[in-house]
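Q: Structure tokens for this one, please.
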Amino acid sequence: MEELQSHTSVAFLNVAPNYVPHTKVECHYNLPPGMKPSARDWIGIFKVEASSVRDYYTFVWCILPEGGSSAGGLLHCSVQFQASYLPKPGPQQYQFRYVDRRGEVRGQSSPFLFSEPRPMDELVTLEEASDDGGGTDMLLVVPKATLLETQLEASRQEQGILLKESCRLKDEVQELRSRVDELEVALSSLRDEHTKLARQYKELSDSYEEVSKQKETLSLQETEHLARIRELEGDIQAMGEKVLQRETELDRVKDTVKSLLREQEQIHNQLKEENAEKEQYQVKLQASEEESRSLASDLLEAKTLHGERVSQTLLLKEDINKLQQKLAAANRRTAQMDALCEQLRSTQDILAASQQKVALLGEELASASSIRDRTISDLHKSRLEAAEINVKLADMTLKWKEGKGQWWKEKATLLQNMEVEKDKILKLSAEVLRLEKNLQEERAQCQVLRMELARERDSSLVNYISVGTGDPIPWPGWDYINKGWGRFPVIFP
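A: Here is the predicted structure, written as tokens:
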């Protein structure tokens, strides 16, 4: 049975409790993973109580395996101790020890003995039907030790085959495990890529939501601006109507002013004429007064002319009364002209205020038009940006969907490959378990055969048996045929 010392030590395999001297001894062992064997490593047979590597009884140099290193897994190796160098039989216990090139013991086996087998006092008789059809059976007399030895040799061969198959299966399992690790690494990278894509999609979704919010805000602002523009347009229209009304009123006032100015000119002309007439009358009055004074002074002298002068005076008084009446009418017209001038000044003030209000309305209309133009340009820019963002978002969404579909396809392929690899690993594990079970059975059978061979081998005498007569047939006359269990002696009747 296998004996594993530790995970980092050399494990010796199939160490029997007893070995027969004067026959070669095979030592099988496994190198642990990570160990680098050397041509200067050796395996020695030591006494159990030996404390130094120099206290060996005999040793053999280790054979380097084909791989050169056990980094990929366990490596099975074996060496042979020649019969002439083995210890003599006795109660002393021995053990195998693996010593590396630095003189360190890397593993040791369980104790075993070298003991002489008991003489063979038993023969195995096998009966076989004759080939000539005469009804006479043929007995095969086989020494039990020989039979056990042949069975042991066959078991060893089968054990070697099973060990090679087990190593091959272990290598395949290791290769499949490395393949599974690679697939897991690829799956992990794909998962990381999927996580990255999901994060990018989340960022794009957040940016899309933010852009949607900005778009809604811009839409609200656009609605507000449009409402403001409509309101301003209504105000502008109302102001235009008011301006038209004011302009019509202004035109009417201008016409009135022009008519008043024409009347004023006419009145001024009339006033000038009346003033001229008044001056003429005043001149005439002064002349009349001078004449009256001269006449008064000459009244005494001109009594004769008194009647005529009185009549002339009366005429002059009548003329003066008329002139006074005309002067009063002229004064009344002057008062009317002053009232018309005052009304003209108030109309001019109203016209100036209307013109100032028209200028203010024009400025407000210009500012409203500039605000409307700026708002329309901002709205156009916002629509262009929103359209560009929508295009980018659509491209990113399409790329994400394509990446996601590719990732799902690769994931499905990897999962399918992993399932196939797992099935292979399960099959190989079942095969390994079956082979290990067969190997254990063969080892158990081999140990039993060894124990029986140790008891039955090295017997020099064999009883002779003959069929029917009982005459002995000498041992050298045996022939050998292959019966599947090895070579068996055939005793001819």
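A few notes: Helices lie at 144-297, 306-456. Residues 1-7, 460-493 have pLDDT under 50 and may be disordered.
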